[in-house]
Amino acid sequence: MKAIGIDVGGTFTDLIYVDRQTGAQGIHKVSTTPDDPSQGVITGLTELMAQGAIDPGDIAQIFHGTTTATNAVLEARGARAGMITNEGFRDVLHIGRHQRPDHYSIMQEIPWQNRPLIKRRYRKTVPGRLVPPTGEELEPLDEAAIRQAARELKADGVEAVAICFLFSYLNPIHENRAKAIVTEEMPEAFVTTSSDISPQFREFERFTTAALATFVGPKVGTYVKNLEAALADQKISGDLRIMASNGGVVTPRMVTQNPALTMMSGLAAGVLGGAWVGQRCGRDKVITFDIGGTSADIGIAVDGVCAETDARSTSIAGFPLLMPMLDIHTIGAGGGSIAYVDQGGAFKVGPQSAGADPGPAAYGRGGAKPTVTDANLVLGRLEPGDFLGGEMGLDLDAAQAVINDLATELNMDPLEAAEGVLTILNANMANAIRSRTVQRGIDPRAFSLVAMGGAGPLQGAEVAAMLEVPEVIVPPHPGITSALGLLIADLKYDVIHTQFQVSTSADLTQFNSEFAEMEAKLTSRLTEDGLNADDVRFERAGDLRYLGQGYELRVPFDLGEVTDAALAQVWQRFHDSHAAEYGHAFENSAIEVVNLRMTAVGSSPDLDLPAQNGGKGLQAAHVRTRQSVFRVDGTLQSFETQVYRRDLLPLGVPVPGPAILLQKDSTTVVPPNATATPHETGSVIISLEAKS
Amino acid sequence: MSRIDPVTGAVIQGALESIALEMGHKLMRMSYSSIIRESEDFGAALTDATGLQMCECRMSTPLQSGPIPGYIRNVLKVLAERDDPVRPGDVIMHNDPYGGASHGPDVAFCVPVFQGETLIGWSATTAHHLDIGALSPGSCGIVDAVDTYAEGLQFKAIKVFDQGKRNDAVWHILRANIRATDLVVGDMEAQIEAARIGAARLLGLVDRYGLDSTMAAFHDLMDYSERLMRDAIRALPDGDYTASTMLDGYLDDPNPARRELPLVVTLKVKGDDLTVDLTGTAPQVPDKPINMPLVGTVDCSVWLTIRSILLDTVTYGAIPQNSGLTRPITIEAPKGTLVNPIFPAPVIARFCPGNQLADTVMKAFAQIVPEQVSAGIGNLRVVALSGLRDGDHWVHMEIMEGSYGGRKGLDGMDAVDTLYANTRNNPIEDIESHIPIRVDRYELRENAMAAGQWRGGIGAIREFTFLDEAGFSLEGEGHAFKPWGFDGGADGYEAELTLVHTDGTTTSLPSKVPYFKVKAGEKLVSIGPSGGGYGDPQQRPADALAADIADGLLTEETSKVIFG
Q1: Domains of chain A (ranges plus CATH)?
Q2: What ipTM goes with this model?
């Protein structure tokens, strides 16, 4: 069975092809076509198929990661969107949580006030009200008012409508009825409800999530349609699956209905890829560490599974997003991050980045500010004539000049300044990793760091050393780990019900009927999407908190009947999880269930790539010897450093550091006191000398 | 000159910020009452052994983290007076408003950090507690407290843990004297755990980098913040700049000395020093709690406003908040005035007066840096709602937002917390799920925007219906005076509060209302203030005017009247 993974990024569209039977594989990269990304996808596909002599009819699956929804929000280019909501609540989207994004600023702007997803003129209110705790009707829905609102929105050229009523997470009846009426009046429009998109309590966050989906709905719909048509043109009839933020894939139909699902999907595939690379090397606990030009993405995976973040931690362009999403932490630190001395005289690195254009000074495109890449070059950790497999030369003089300027400003030696750039960057990254590990009761010393992205293998070993992580795994192709991750993504459908229950008075019947209803909902959704419910497994979980708290922790529920004994286990899991997460459990407090969740998972077939052969010997892989600078035992020293072609290194033969491994999509730095060993899976494992 | 190389300095700074963030994150997520977890009315900070602030959590509210140094200094002072040394394992509770605390409900838990036998620093959390055992339920709207004793329990450096051993007697006293006991005590426990985490992390940092390097980096960091502030002050022309605004005070009080009280600010700029002279401000009100503690409220109000104007995050990024930032600023507040009251004058309702002081500081700055200020802000109001359910109290606090004035190039921010406050509202779906209140409306006011080239921000309307018999009290400002317009912009709109009785009749309420009973079916209608306009209304671009009309914020008719 042949599968293709296609990951559309900001600059490049990466493609990977794998024959799951024979293990044959190929990779390809083309430029992204921002105006209609489906064109770049098709160009890449035809070239990849030609390169591997693949018959379009043989392709069973296309796994696709798209940033269409993400970019529409980031660039504030979406649909003319409208909203229908309760009378009296026209401005929930505008007032938000009445908090300013910045404490200490008079001149700040507020995303939801200065760049509204839905303008006030297109926010209509209608009578009708539901109330807790069950969502019973206090005031009937005014259907005539809805019809009138829809007609007005249509007359104003509105293309997409969000229907958002208070307490719809308890009872969607008013939203569903309103949706039916609006769809009758506006058959061409994208129409959705807040309970369809994310039935969870907290109205500003839920309404905003629905507004985000509505804002991008028409654009995503068009994109998916274009892509399907283009695939049909190419006679590719395999199943198209699209990556969602939860780390699973869903059908095109599902994405068209709920485009908010894909909002943060770009990051998810990378973590899956990194986790898979780790598992192939026999490592079940990994920190995935993906560094590009402007940002670093950090994920934690255990047994190939990356946990989901809690609903209140996710946002896009400053807007809260209540969507299941893998717990991935992004910081503004990458190869292009600019080093500077700020107004107060402090030495800073990032988050501003030189980007790809002009890029670092070393790119020779006019970049005049010192970046991380320039520091690496000045320290001899990048090869001026051998960057990106020799496709691009680096300008050492230009890099040296900007680093010298920085050093002068700091009154430091230039090499000290260059190494300082890396130390500050690495410390920022280590702090970010600590916030996801040490601060949550996870000991990073039991983990391996998977260094991915163009710049991950450059910084990985030194960041690992700061965290006392014992080893770094560098995947075979660090730059296309996301495309690889797509191929191993499972099908994943989520359903969530807000259900307040307290441990001291838990209603077992209610739990069982909720889970039964959720399972039925998932099964019918799968059937509607042409999938077989027998091929999936179900997983259950709940969002729990101590009664009175405002933040929940995700705790798994066992399958089968919910009994007192089963609940007792759930409560204990919550205490344990609270202690791990916050350092303390309130064992005598009552626990409140807030949401119940259920996920249908359809596993992808295993990806079993053949072992690598490796090169003949170190000699054959050796390119040259050069000087490079590292800090060892507190002092900066220049070392004679061996440079190797990574693809020619023999398997299982340790390469002592300091060493530099070259390959087309990245450069790996092996510091002194570390050893790199090529693994049969094609990864390189760098072992760090344990600190005494 | 730097004490440590800039690389190590940057690394230690990042680590300090990360610790404060972790403390705040965990406190917010562990805490029980919505005033902490939803409104984020809490603080978290580390100080050195003497109480100089090293870092604060950027998630916390400015008025909570800012006072922490004052709490620590007073804890040290009180313990020294008692000859009771600070020891490892101690956890010290403090809320004395005449001893560094912002006011009584903001209770701090302070954990000393020891390296071996040496005290090297403090980790502290503060939070606004729902109830502190005052005369009526809730810890806001206690507007009739006659002295500090009537405001609730006072804790002056009480060791709730003494060398690691829990002082059970204190906890029994707390439980016996505080309403909504489980919530409040749960929040206090969360505060202690978060402070202990901060202490452990600070010790870890010191172990990693050494005490000397850590302290050198911290002192560099204070110098850094001080340098930024001094540079900003030096750029201002020397001179004295005076502004005043008015507090409502007690509008229904027959005694004129308790209503319409002036706040006066004179900024004295000289080189890179700034003196903020509050002379001219009204005398203290000896038996009403709108007096403002000088340390903990007045100082924070002044500092935070100056920082927001001169070192605006939009221009300067996130600069570290530490004691260095305040070194160039001297505050002069005559004793016995609203801004420097004499014990035991009550202070518990100082929140809104303090924010009015912040607005007055901004009004003085408007004369110096008009492109860095907003026109007058709409102030906030806080209500306490309470009742009994199965013999237990429920207590809920709502902080009702104000709005900003117009700014050079930008309209005012609509319906937000202003200046030294930055809390979050409670989701309607959370309120109605947990207390017997129905929220009937939450929207912007219409036809109530201050005209200007850049219009003022618009206030919000919020309506509550009581579903059960309940209690209600209010502390607020802005019912009597309009937010000031600037540079030709119109003045803004006052706030209003109306109680609608079950028979449809209404009672208009002043901005301070002590506890009273309301019946099921009665309804409160809160109308938030709209900030002042900035610049000549006739200069407002036609498309901006048309957009507000299309958005239904303004009718054509009103637009013609106010924009000309």
Answers
A1: 76-216 (3.40.50), 337-423 (no CATH), 491-602 (3.30.1490)
A2: 0.95
